[in-house]
Every structure is written in C-alpha cells, then in structure tokens.
Amino acid sequence: MKLNIKLKNLKYYITIIVLMSTQLYAQNTNPTVSSIAFSISGTTVTVIYDVADAEQNTVTIGMQVSSDNGATWNFNFGSANGDIGTGVSIGNSKTITWNYSAGYNPNFMIRIFANDETADGDSCGNLYYEGGPHIDSIGVYYSTIQIGTQCWMKDNLNIGTMIIGSVNQTNNSTIEKYCLGDLSASCYL
After folding, report:
1. For strand 161-162 and strand 176-177, is the pairing parallel, antiparallel, or unpaired?
2. Is residue 9 part of a domain?
3. Is pLDDT of 48 > 90?
4. What are residue 131's phi and psi, to 5 degrees?
5. What pTM, to 2 d.p., does this model score?
6. pLDDT tens digit sequence for 76-124
C-alpha cells in the first residue's frame, strides 16, 4: 500500500516537472507581417501592412527595397516615416510612407520585416557593419542578442563572394560563401 502511494506521488511530481519544463523551454515565435499593400502617388510610396506577435505587444519593423526585382535588397531608400523602427505596436493597417526622388522604376520591390528582439535575451545594440541585413537611418547593421553576460550576433555574417552550390570552395585567399538556393538575396538568411 505504501509503495502504491509513493508511485502515485512520483507520477504526480514527474507530470508537474514535465509541464513546468515545457513552459521553461518554450521557444519564442517570430512576429508575422501580412496583408502588405502599397500605393504610389507621385514620388510618395505608402505601404500598409498587418503585424502580429504571440508574445510581444511591440516589435521592430524594418523595410528593405530592391531596385532589381529582388535580386538584391540594398537599395538606399533614404528614410521612411510612420510605423517603422522600434516600438511599433502589433495590429492591423500599419502605415509606412516613403518619399523617393528617383524616377519610376518598374523593378522596385519592397520587403517589410518584423523582429520582436526576443530569443532567450534582449538586444545589446545593433552592430553597424557593411553587409548587414537590416537598414535604419544610420546605416546597415546586424542585430545582436544578450545571452547571459555575453553579446552574440543574432544574424548570420554576410561576408564573402557567393559561389554556386555545385562548386567546391577553394583555398585562394578569397572568402567564399554558399547562399540558400544559389540566390544572392538569401545570403542574408
């Protein structure tokens, strides 16, 4: 009888431990940007989008512009106003306004992305360096994250010359890299 009660208690404690550890090790989900639409009036581009996040009430919104149908996303669009940058509340019908001075380009593409700056830690500042996948008013940068007392890069380092996946890297004093699907735009992933 005593052994049966101890086994029931042990099963109870194991169940509680499993449930608690599931909560402790639950992963943060990334925010999602959806329903992106844009309009052009003269030299003003208005982007409207929805953003959702399961865990956070505010996110960081970024915008990248391609002038070559998405082959590269490094077009310097200058500045944009509205629901862009840090501290953007989640919700629907968010608006970004961008004024450009160049002529009409049918190859323009706009990419809106969200980051809740949460993945086991807080941001410990942006690392501004060429090739960074994010752009703000200061320049291109890599996101960082603090884990414990250390600061780590949250983004992959985008450095080197892209080579096609079927080609072997060589020892030729040139930094070489593979990009997903042999697409230069995926070097930022």
Report:
1. parallel
2. no
3. yes
4. 90, -5
5. 0.52
6. 887 889 999 888 999 999 999 988 877 777 888 888 888 776 654 555 6
Q: Which domain holds residue 174?
A: 159-189
Tokens of residue 65, six digits: 């512009």
Is there a domain that residue 8 lies in? no
**pLDDT confidence of 23, banded at 50, 70, 90?**
very low
Say yes or no: 40 and 67 in one domain: yes
Half-sphere exposure of 153 (CA within 13 A, CB side): 14
Do 128 and 179 lie in one domain? The reply is: no
Q: Give the CATH number, domain containing residue 80.
A: 2.60.40
Residue type for 111, please? R
Q: What is the dihedral of CA 180, 183, 187, 189, to 10 degrees?
A: -50
User: Which tokens belong to 173?
Assistant: 């004093």
Given a contact cutoff of 8 angstroms between Cβ atoms, the answer to whether 130 and 140 are in contact is: yes
Phi-psi category of residue 182: left, alpha or beta, with phi > 0 → left and psi -120 to 50 → alpha: left
User: Is residue 105 located within the same domain as residue 129?
Assistant: no
